[in-house]
Design brief:
The protein is an alpha/beta fold. Helices cover 43% and strands 18% of the residues. Bound molecules: flavin mononucleotide. The site of flavin mononucleotide has 20 residues, from α1, β3, β5 and α5.
Length: 175
């Protein structure tokens, strides 16, 4: 499994997915895309890719990696998960990001998921906190605006279900 992350939420999600797969007896390698090199190594029974959205776009490293490698992403079960705040409050927007990712990379993953991300006000620097507060102010009711705390919108049950479904597919492919 490989992922791209800026503030760490996609990494946390990747770790939860890995835990579910390991609990079912699978051997899992979790790789930050920045350390993944240029190609997908041979020998994997399945590949999951995850990326977060910033300013309307998925992590550039992931887009470049998938664009280069989508040939080797066929033939084994694959899945992609997208992490964004839109996935929490604006499904249409989150789906638009996903379509854009597919268009940009040319990859058609068999399984996709949209997971809510995190609003980490206490971790952001001044400018980012200000920017994110403005975005949250424009989405009344859906995003928190108290900058003295963090908000995590990831639905962990959905993440676990996604991992269980992928594990079931791997097991079916191996049987
Ligand atoms: C500077 C910045 C810009 C962002 N832009 C968007 C955006 O355009 N659309 C969206 O849905 N979420 C946006 N987000 C929310 C991120 O997708 C969310 O914080 C996610 O948890 C980040 O995942 P990561 O920590 O793995 O990078 C933005 C977050 C930051 C900090």
């Amino acid at each position: 499994m490989t992922y791209g992350t800026s503030e760490g939420q996609t990494e946390k999600i990747a770790d939860v997915i890995a835990d579910v797969l390991r609990a079912r007896g699978h051997d899992v390698h979790v790789l930050d895309i920045k350390e993944a090199g240029h190609a997908i190594p041979e020998g994997y029974d399945g590949v999951i890719v995850g990326a977060s959205v910033h300013v309307g776009k998925h992590d550039k490293h992931v887009v470049d990696f998938v664009r280069r490698n989508h040939g080797s992403l066929s033939g084994v079960p694959t899945a992609f998960f997208s992490v964004s705040l839109a996935a929490h409050g604006d499904q249409t927007e989150a789906e638009r990001y996903l379509e854009q990712f597919k268009d940009e990379t040319g990859w058609r993953p068999e399984r996709t998921a949209l997971f809510g991300g995190a609003l980490l006000y206490t971790h952001y620097g001044f400018l980012k906190r200000h920017l994110m507060k403005r975005i949250a102010d424009d989405k009344p009711g859906s995003l928190g605006t108290d900058t003295s705390r963090d908000y995590v919108y990831t639905e962990w049950d959905g993440v676990k279900r996604f991992a269980e479904d992928f594990a079931a597919e791997l097991e079916a492919a191996a049987a």
